[in-house]
Design goal:
It comes from Pseudomonas kitaguniensis. The protein is an alpha+beta fold and about 100 residues long. Helices cover about 35% and strands about 35% of the residues. It is globular and about 40 Å long.
Length: about 100
């Protein structure tokens, strides 16, 4: 049986680019939230470090995340955001309690 899991994606904008990155990230919300297997996809911004954004995600299984990673809106985002992103870190988490 597939096991759901969470993802925390940390996306850090290059200096002075957070106002450009934020709307790009917001554009991902609606199409991702309707993808099969997407149980949660929420955007947060760090209060002390506005250049740092977090996507809190929950996926039903590996296949759903793999499909998401190859979706048209994600591939387009990667191409558009390459010039404004300084760093991306993806953590997969297993919920314990």
């Amino acid at each position: 049986m597939p096991t759901a899991f969470n993802v925390i994606a940390t996306l850090i904008a290059k200096p002075g680019q957070h106002a450009t990155l934020e709307p790009m990230l917001r554009e991902l919300l609606e199409p991702t939230r309707v993808e099969p297997g997407c149980e949660q996809y929420d955007l947060y911004q760090d209060l002390k470090h506005p250049e740092t954004f977090y996507m809190l995600e929950r996926w039903s299984d590996d296949a759903a995340l793999a499909d998401h990673d190859q979706s048209a809106h994600i591939l387009s985002f990667r191409a558009k955001a390459a010039d404004v992103l300084e760093h991306v870190d993806i953590k997969r988490l297993n919920f314990l309690a």
